[in-house]
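Example record used in the benchmark description.
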Amino acid sequence: MESNAEITSAKRLRVGLILAWIPLMLFVVPTAIGIINAFVEIASQKQTGLGAVAGGLSEMAVTFGLVVIVGSQVAAIVMLLRTLSRSHPVRTTIAIFSVCCSGVFLLALGLILWSTPLHQ
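Model output (structure tokens):
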């Protein structure tokens, strides 16, 4: 019989994994669409450079909702870090891998937004 602490930890792991991976998976499809649209725009307008591609990516990211993405990733990291346990090495490994992926995702998103020029 599992204790209440282990049941709570397992529930946190499930919710943390959902928060960590759903935005990541939902971000892959819009990113692909944004890149395809950027390359179509580059081909039709004969534009070159990183600015043309970054414009398509930043428009897609804003459309998807940066606050939701960042908020869910931070919540996932917090919940997954609370599930770390020496008694469950597989669970801990999955949680650490998901936290690292969420961190890399947030870093990449920050770099994309930082490199995008502001339109005034």
